[in-house]
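Late entry, adenosine-5'-diphosphate complex.
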Amino acid sequence: MVKVYTIASGKGGTGKTTVSVNLGTMLAKLGKETYLMDADIGMANVGLILGLQDVPVTLHEILAGKNNIDEGIYTGPAGLKVIPSGISLQGFQQADPDKIRDVLSEIIKRCDFLLIDAPAGISKDGVVPLAAADEVILVVNPELSSIVDALKTKILTEVVGGRVLGTIVNRVDPDKSEVIAKKMEKVLGVKVIGIIPEDANVRRASAVRTPIVIKFPDSIASKAIKKIASDMIGVAYTDETTQAKSREGFIERFSKALFKKKSEK
Ligand code: ADP
Ligand code: MG
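Prediction complete; structure with ligand written out below:
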């Protein structure tokens, strides 16, 4: 069964695009046919993060009726399918947000997961993805203005008939994550489905236009994203670096044991 998630927040800059791109890449890495659509037709940046900023056909052209959907689907990291939005103001003006529904109904025939990177705010193009998704994931930072915005977006989602799955708290001080998660659940009244720490590797990865889960898979932010993706698929989260370390430990112990035996001989 296909699942459609809209990644929303209220205000910009909380990490929606970072979460969309990396969660999408991670789901693809875990073997799921995953599409990522940049519905932020006013301030597109999925394309920028993935190095798809110069592609000929974007969601703008599709929503303007100039091109068909297939011409605007690009293959990203780990086989993630990406539908970038354009960045020109003119393209934005010609795009018809009402057509998003048609595009969505075509895409969901093809995938396991569709993630929609939603625009901030309550314009028409912002509200449609909140209502159209099976579930909305709110990306919130541990600061008052972001929490207030997330709360507004939660209410807005419910007003338009959508459903909030939970929140991802992003840019959290790793030492305080448990306390913050508890507080967030209390204040927002929704489940915290993931906690992503503040991690300088996020910026480093986006500077080279590569998702952090590909560029720095062992970073603390990547591990947090892998945990969220594993939970979404319903598989157990495995930390490969810990596994590798315990394998190394085992090999070390094994060879030491061998050596001991040899010298004892
Ligand atoms: P939005 O799409 O909500 O506007 P972005 O995903 O573009 O937000 O993120 C805004 C900025 O915050 C970017 O510069 C990004 O690199 C940075 N950022 C996002 N998440 C983290 C994190 N966990 N640690 C450090 N920086 C982050
Ligand atoms: Mg964004």
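The domain at 3-234 is CATH 3.40.50.300 (Rossmann fold). Will revisit in the morning.
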